[in-house]
Each structure stands twice: as structure tokens, then as C-alpha cells.
Design a protein that fits this description.
- It comes from Astragalus membranaceus.
- One of its GO terms (biological process) is methylation.
- It catalyses: a 7-hydroxyisoflavone + S-adenosyl-L-methionine = a 7-methoxyisoflavone + S-adenosyl-L-homocysteine + H(+).
- The protein is α/β, with parallel strands linked by helices and 353 residues long.
- It has two domains: 103 residues, Orthogonal Bundle (Arc Repressor Mutant, subunit A), CATH 1.10.10; 171 residues, 3-Layer(aba) Sandwich (Rossmann fold), CATH 3.40.50.150.
- It contains 18 helices and twelve strands.
- The protein has a seven-stranded mixed beta sheet with strand order 6-5-4-7-8-12-11, with helices on both faces. A three-stranded antiparallel beta sheet has the order 1-3-2.
- α16 links the parallel β7 and β8.
- α7 packs across α12.
- It binds S-adenosylmethionine and 2-[3,4-bis(oxidanyl)phenyl]-7,8-bis(oxidanyl)chromen-4-one.
- The site of 2-[3,4-bis(oxidanyl)phenyl]-7,8-bis(oxidanyl)chromen-4-one (SQH) has 14 residues, from α7.
- 2-[3,4-bis(oxidanyl)phenyl]-7,8-bis(oxidanyl)chromen-4-one (SQH) binds next to α7.
């Protein structure tokens, strides 16, 4: 009886700790934002391998009354694998970059700081406080409940949000080159490709530079591609993917379908199928998006994918399992598909008519 009581109490205290970890989960987000705002990744990179606490403090514009925050911030971020922390024999601290913070160095070829800035924007983050109110009401999207406008209208009407979003997306797309280097076979037999929802053209620039014989078209909403200049094998076309998509041998959809409901995705995929139809069975749609694999994803991978799934509720979008993807492809009239898990938490899916 006594030991059962102790066990129950221990379980409840364990539950309490878990709840507090969840309650304070957002501090991982804001401390990451804080480190980027302070420019800590750049300071460490410019300094060399690792930086001592006094050296870091000498570079930061933190008044003496607040310098004690810095080792606490660094301890928390090191705990979360954003930095490495070293203690020498005298007990002095120094810090170095991890693969995650290498991606926050502004001179890096794959700097993701604009992604951090975009997703940690105070107004955009605040939208998620309205989930409870949204789900019980009739207003279709969380964005409309929170801000009185849809996500796409907000981006269209407010240049500061458009820049924040396009820069975030562009920096995310730079990592495409890491995967394309090893998978050029994807482009064999393809003379032209249209990047639907291709934003300001970061992915298309990578493809057009790597394959000089490949004609690349960036297709996005008119206000996104207005005033952008192409090159020999790269052009910009403005339009609406729900109306018509330029013809090409292949269509690329990177981070597009997770923005939309199943019904809207089927409409987009049908338009894509028509776009690649002149190439008959050789035409294909290349999707770069998340595939949830419940049995295989480890805790970390599942955390990222399932968090994005909740996040996409803001637009009525979603992340999908393989079964859900397959259903979309069948309903849009495609016959085969092949998944290549080559983009970290996202995969490349080839879909054939
Ligand atoms: C999440 S972003 C992805 C951008 C880019 N593919 C990438 O991965 O970096 C979605 C893109 O879809 C575009 N978009 C939204 N609605 C669209 C429509 N109806 N027709 C064409 N593009 C659209 C947006 O302007 C935006 O650039
Ligand atoms: O800043 C945001 C950006 C996005 C967003 C839109 C399209 C994408 O393809 C994507 O990957 C992310 O969605 C949000 C959201 O859903 C929220 O609830 C709150 C903020 C945002």
C-alpha cells in the first residue's frame, strides 16, 4: 500500500516535470531567436574554433548589469544542441558551433537565419494562440481568426511580411543544392522544368546553374515574380496555379502541397498533370515535402514533422503520411510514385502520369 502510494506520487511528479517542459517549450524558440538577434553564431565563426566567455562578452553589446544572462543563454542552447560548451581545467567556459548553429552563420552557403527570423516573428507566432477559438468557430482559417486576413493576403498586402516570407523561403531552398549534387539522375531526359510556387527563384537558379541545358521556369503569383530578371535558361512567369500552369517536361512543387487541403492539392496536381502531358509517360511531377513515417521516424524526426503539421493548421494545410500522399496521387489521376528521403525531414517524391 505504502509503496503503491510512493509509486503514484513519483508518477505524478514525473508528469509534473513533463508538463513544465511542455509549458516552457516556447523558450527554445525565443532563445534561438535571441541568439540570432545577438549575432552569436557569426561572432563564434569569425573568432575561430571556439570562443571563451570573456571573448564572447567583449563582442556583444550587453551592458555589464546583464552580462550574467549570456552564460545562462549559452547553457540553455548548448543543452538543446545549438552550441557546444567546453569547460577547461580551470573551470573556464568556451563555446563552439554545432551543425545546427553552422546553419546560422550569415556567410554560410546554407544560412537558415532568415527561416528563424520568419518563423519567430512575434505577430506570426501569435497566430497560434487562437487555435482553441478557431477550432470551435466557423471562420475557415486560423489566420483569419487571429489577424482578420488569410496568410496569402497578408503576404500580398504587407511588403514587410512578403519580404520576411520570401527571404525565409529562399534561404530554406538553398539547401536543395546539397541533395541535387547526389541525385542528378532525377533530371535525366528532362529538357524543361517549371517550379510551381517557386518564390523568388532560389531553387530554379540552383537547377539552371547545375544543368545548363535545362530550361527552368519559375512560376509564382504575379506580385512575387514582378520585376525579377531571368537568365539564358531561367525565366519568371506570373500566374495562379489553380487556373493554369506553364507547360514543361517536369513540374517541381517544393513546399507547396503542405500549404493546402486535400481538395486543393488534387486541383493543383491535376493542373500539373496537364502541364507535363506533352511528354506523355516521361513527364513527371517532383514534390519536395514531408512524408510522415510513423513506424520509422525517431522521436526527433517525428517532433519536427508533427510540429510542422500543427503549424500548417494556420493555413488549413497539413503534413501527410505515405498513405495520404498515395491517395492524393491516385485521385489526381497519377499511376506511380517513388519516394526518395533525401532532404532531411522532407523527401523528394517523383510522381508519374
Ligand atoms: C511555402 S512557399 C514555397 C516557396 C518555394 N517553393 C520554396 O520552397 O522555397 C509557397 C509559394 O507558393 C506561392 N503561391 C501561393 N499561392 C499560389 C498560387 N495560387 N499560384 C502560384 N503560386 C502560389 C507563394 O507565393 C509561395 O512562393
Ligand atoms: O509565419 C508563418 C508561415 C507559415 C507558412 C506558410 C506556408 C508554408 O509553406 C510554410 O512552410 C509556412 O505558416 C504559418 C502558420 O501556419 C501559422 O499558424 C503562423 C505563422 C506562419
Amino acid at each position: 500500500m505504502g509503496s503503491r502510494y510512493v509509486q503514484k506520487a513519483n508518477d505524478l511528479f514525473e508528469g509534473q516535470t513533463l508538463l513544465y517542459a511542455q509549458i516552457f517549450g516556447y523558450l527554445k524558440t525565443v532563445c534561438l531567436k535571441w541568439a540570432v538577434q545577438l549575432g552569436i553564431p557569426d561572432i563564434i565563426k569569425n573568432h575561430g574554433e571556439s570562443i571563451t566567455l570573456p571573448e564572447l562578452l567583449s563582442k556583444l553589446k550587453v551592458p555589464p548589469s546583464k552580462t550574467s544572462c549570456v552564460p545562462r543563454l549559452m547553457r540553455f542552447l548548448a543543452h538543446n544542441r545549438i552550441f557546444d560548451i567546453h569547460v577547461n581545467q580551470k573551470g573556464h567556459l568556451s563555446y563552439s558551433l554545432t551543425p545546427a548553429s553552422e546553419l546560422l552563420v550569415s556567410s554560410s552557403d546554407h544560412c537558415l537565419s532568415p527561416v528563424v527570423t520568419m518563423f519567430t516573428n512575434q505577430v506570426l507566432m501569435g497566430v497560434n494562440h487562437h487555435l482553441g477559438e478557431w477550432v470551435c468557430g466557423e471562420v475557415p482559417t486560423l489566420f483569419e481568426v487571429a489577424l482578420g486576413t488569410s496568410f496569402w493576403e497578408l503576404v500580398k498586402d504587407k511588403p514587410s511580411y512578403m519580404n520576411l516570407f520570401n527571404e525565409g523561403m529562399a534561404s530554406d531552398s538553398k539547401m536543395v543544392d546539397l541533395a541535387l549534387k547526389n541525385y542528378s539522375s532525377i533530371f535525366e531526359g528532362i529538357d524543361s522544368i517549371v517550379d510551381v510556387g517557386g518564390g523568388t527563384g532560389t531553387t530554379a537558379k540552383i537547377m539552371s546553374a547545375k544543368f545548363s541545358n535545362l530550361k527552368c521556369i519559375v512560376f509564382d503569383l504575379p506580385h512575387v515574380v514582378a520585376n525579377l530578371l531571368g537568365s539564358d535558361n531561367l525565366s519568371y512567369v506570373g500566374g495562379d496555379m489553380f487556373i493554369s500552369i506553364p507547360k514543361a517536361d517536369a513540374v517541381l512543387l517544393k513546399w507547396i502541397l503542405h500549404d493546402w487541403t486535400d481538395e486543393k492539392c488534387i486541383e493543383i496536381l491535376e493542373k500539373c498533370k496537364y502541364s507535363v502531358s506533352s511528354k506523355e509517360s516521361k513527364g513527371k511531377v517532383i514534390i519536395i515535402d514531408t512524408v510522415i513515417i510513423e513506424k520509422e521516424d525517431d522521436q526527433y524526426m517525428a517532433d519536427t514533422k508533427l510540429s510542422m503539421d500543427i503549424f500548417m493548421l494556420g493555413l488549413k494545410g497539413k503534413e501527410r503520411t505515405e498513405k495520404e500522399w498515395k491517395q492524393l496521387f491516385i485521385e489526381a489521376g497519377f499511376k506511380h510514385y517513388k519516394i526518395f528521403p533525401i532532404f532531411g525531414f522532407r523527401s523528394l517524391i517523383e510522381v508519374y502520369p
